[in-house]
Prior knowledge:
Keywords: Signal. By secondary structure, the protein is mainly beta. Helices cover 3% and strands 37% of the residues.
Amino acid sequence: MKKAFIFSAICIGTLIFSQTINFKGCIPLFDDQMFTLNQTSTDSFGKKIYVTTPVNGDQPCGGIGTCEFKLQWNDTAGRWEFLADKGNGDFVDPFLIYYSTTQNTSADNPPNASIGTWVENTAVTTGACGGDLTDTNSTFTGDVRTTTLAVNEFDSTKITVYPNPATEYVNISGLSNIKTIKIISIDGKLISILKNSNKINVGKLARGVYFLEIQTDNAVIKRVKFIKK
Length: 229
């Protein structure tokens, strides 16, 4: 896409594949039209990837090029990003149009504009979109996450965490071949990442509710809630 700039969508935790997000926004660049992004796959971190479909170079975009977009998680930066293709549909070295600064790293889909700040990347758009996305200047429908926590974060899925509540240590049973464990606060902030451990030192955590995001060697991710007292 030749200098077409947009943002996209966001979602609510769900286990259904092939979810759709409809987006309308950045009207000065993209006109008053709705774009549809479909879930095409899931990345190695269990995050959903959404792409405008079909990607064939002929999606109209306000007379300034073709609109081909991708919404995906950037694990290095710890954020969701809305990317625009340069016009051939391969998303090699795409334009970063928007990124979200308010995250829940446990969720498998991004936040909507009402619970996160989606920042316009003015280095690319030169401010043509009119600023950060909000729930008043954009429309998001479909597979969008509208709460801070993802739905499936409360599923224990046969994992036992004990003692719970905990004071110094948390033990995990019911899973083998644990690869990494992320400790995540109730508001979605990543506290720490641990490697290959069934026993976690939580003595320095403040009192409150936390989540363990557990990844095994075969890429199975489980999320379990525990209380630090």
